Amino acid sequence: MTRDRLEHVLRASAAITTDKSFVVVGSQSVLLPYPNAPTELLLSNEVDLYPALHPERSDLIEGAIGQLSMFHDTFGYYAARLESRLRALDAASGPIETWVAWARRRHEEARA
Question: Which residues pair with 80 in a beta bridge?
Fold first, then answer.
């Protein structure tokens, strides 16, 4: 994914949720401080994000421009939902509840 595509997903997410601030996590977050990141870091076609002040609106993003949506079919990339992805992990992969709590803390920090 390129910086342009990330910005496209952010604009679409803003239009869907009416939010202006998003938390981007995962591999594509590197594009925010490093728009010309090495090719090896640009392989993913998904963006994990949620509205900083209204994480519950991430369902709107997932439904409208998530995996297998018309947006995904049209552009070849999509927005993904962080908490549901964390909860879908095998419990043996790590402390899932700790990771979910971390994501929620980041949300609270963004609101402060």
Answer: 48
Phi, psi of 79 (to 5 degrees): -95, 140
Q: By residue range, what is the domain housing residue 50?
A: 3-82
- Ordered strands of the 78-80 beta sheet: 22-25, 46-51, 78-80
pTM tops 0.70, yes or no: yes
CA gap 62, 46 in Å, rounded = 11
Residue holding tokens 């963004």? 110
> Which phi and psi angles does 52 have, rounded to 5°?
-60, -40
- Whether residue 95 lies inside any domain: the answer is no
Check pLDDT > 80 for residue 79: yes
